[in-house]
């Protein structure tokens, strides 16, 4: 796959696992929340994990999955406050800032497009200071649909006036890349190193990268070649 930057005007980027290390989110939902839930309810940690993991799975690919208010109400926990307890784990992937600077230098429109809840965005943008690099930030909660829904990408155009043929999407979710592909977005990039704690596994369907600086051309060039 050839990424020709002369053919791309808009870059849509996911947040968790794509720009940011998903280790924070995995640790938070799989370890930290069950620990606090077990303590609050006086039950063993393994019992809490079994119950919560099933509950989490039941809300995958819906807006509830990333809605902090939903989980606060459902679990009887202050989820935003619990996130602050482990916010030291929030980290930007290597190569991300370099890539964002490259995009700005070449006058690309850069949109952070995420399923993350607004309260999560506030915490992470404050911690990482990535906000100023973007043309704008859109949460799926503002759109009213998760990115797993093909209709999301058309509805997004009401906020982000992009041409699918001249747009790149960077994601760590093959499902979301698939819905974007079905809508017609042309340049699709899978981030295989979504967590610093999990060995990267390239996609068999989409062009894959470990780090975003792999998309920066050599000096004087306008394109890069990626393995499909």
Automatic annotation (TrEMBL):
Domain of life: Bacteria
Pfam families: Hydrolase (PF00702)
GO cellular component terms listed in the entry, alphabetical order: cytosol
Molecular-function annotations in GO: phosphoglycolate phosphatase activity
SUPFAM superfamilies with a match to the protein in the record: HAD-like (SSF56784)
BP terms from Gene Ontology: DNA repair
Identification of the protein by name: Haloacid dehalogenase
Top-level taxonomy: Bacteria, Pseudomonadati, Thermodesulfobacteriota, Desulfuromonadia, Geobacterales
């Amino acid at each position: 796959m050839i990424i020709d930057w002369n053919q791309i005007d808009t870059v849509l980027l996911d947040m968790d696992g794509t720009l940011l290390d998903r280790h924070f989110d995995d640790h938070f939902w799989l370890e930290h929340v069950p620990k606090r839930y077990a303590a609050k309810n006086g039950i063993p940690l393994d019992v809490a994990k079994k119950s919560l993991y099933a509950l989490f799975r039941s809300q995958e690919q819906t807006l509830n999955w990333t809605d902090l208010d939903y989980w606060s109400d459902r679990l009887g926990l202050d989820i935003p406050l619990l996130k602050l307890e482990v916010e030291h784990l929030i980290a930007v992937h290597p190569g991300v800032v370099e890539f964002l600077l490259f995009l700005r230098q070449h006058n690309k429109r850069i949109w952070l497009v995420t399923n993350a809840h607004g309260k999560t965005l506030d915490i992470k943008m404050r911690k990482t200071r990535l906000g100023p690099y973007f043309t704008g930030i859109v949460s799926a909660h503002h759109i009213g649909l998760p990115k797993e829904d093909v209709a999301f990408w058309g509805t997004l155009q009401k906020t982000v006036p992009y041409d699918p043929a001249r747009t790149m999407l960077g994601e760590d979710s093959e499902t979301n890349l698939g819905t974007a592909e079905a809508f017609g977005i042309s340049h699709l990039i899978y981030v295989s190193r979504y967590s610093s704690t999990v060995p990267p596994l390239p996609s068999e369907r989409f062009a894959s990268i470990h780090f975003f600086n792999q998309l920066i051309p050599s000096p004087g060039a306008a394109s890069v070649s990626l393995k499909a």
